[in-house]
Design the sequence.
């Protein structure tokens, strides 16, 4: 039984006058403890970043950079074939943007979480994960790297001493390996089913896969997506289920401190 958990969500995923998803950042921010803020390549622009970072500061929510592929049209969910060096440079550029807005409001960058197809690529690409972790160690070693527990990213981060948090995905399916099933479009889920799934993972350390098998899952943070249909209802259901069962919701940095 987990007594304390982080609840994170992707935020600021719009551009100019356009926004993605049904739920407003202002409503979602009241539910979560860590915000993954779009940093301009898959979504987000400077004014949006500023607004969301300020909002997180006002709510005591940990701020994180959410760097993606240079893919506004595809929302960062299309794979781009290029070198690990170029990808890490793109990540570092985006991390710097969120970090500077954090400094503007006196908030330290808590974490970094790659977005979409870039997250999935890093999970299986040892060279990319190695280069990413090495760069983060040199530039923002105190920041926490978010990833899947079954990923190369997690394996390398642990080996190199990078602070790292494993995620549980509330609104994504799992395969038998413990990896999430990557999806570009997601149907509207049942909020109570999502909440029950999260609660079971916290209580029993188990999740049911797409083949109907129960597998063990380890994590320190639960993620739900702002662009999933019904995101606000999903977030409210997850939060209520956790709190009703005595599970504290706290930023990722606080969760790690409680594990030390």
Sequence:
């Amino acid at each position: 039984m987990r007594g304390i958990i982080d609840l994170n969500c992707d935020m600021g995923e719009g551009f100019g006058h356009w926004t993605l998803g049904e739920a407003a950042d202002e409503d979602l921010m009241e539910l979560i403890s860590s915000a993954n803020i779009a940093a301009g390549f898959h979504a987000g622009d400077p004014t949006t970043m500023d607004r969301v970072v300020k909002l997180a500061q006002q709510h005591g929510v940990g701020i994180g950079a959410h760097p993606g592929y240079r893919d506004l049209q595809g929302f960062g969910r299309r794979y781009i074939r290029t070198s690990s060096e170029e990808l890490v440079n793109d990540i570092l550029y985006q991390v710097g943007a969120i970090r500077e807005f954090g400094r503007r409001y006196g908030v330290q960058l808590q974490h970094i979480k790659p977005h979409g197809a870039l997250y999935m690529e890093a999970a299986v690409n040892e060279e990319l994960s190695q280069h990413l972790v090495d760069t983060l160690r040199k530039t923002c070693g105190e920041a926490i790297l978010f990833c899947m527990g079954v990923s190369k990213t997690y394996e390398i981060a642990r080996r190199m001493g990078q602070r790292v948090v494993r995620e549980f995905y509330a609104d994504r399916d799992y395969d038998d390996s413990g990896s999430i099933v990557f999806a570009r479009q997601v149907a509207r889920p049942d909020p109570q089913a999502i909440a029950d799934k999260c609660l079971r993972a916290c209580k029993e350390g188990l999740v049911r896969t797409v083949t109907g098998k129960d597998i063990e899952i380890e994590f320190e943070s639960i993620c739900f997506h702002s662009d999933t249909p019904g995101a606000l209802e999903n977030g409210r259901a997850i939060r209520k289920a956790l709190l009703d069962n005595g599970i504290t919701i706290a930023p990722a940095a606080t969760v790690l401190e409680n594990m030390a």
Q: What stands out?
A: The chain has a mean pLDDT of 96. The two ends are 17 Å apart (CA to CA). The longest strand covers residues 4-11.
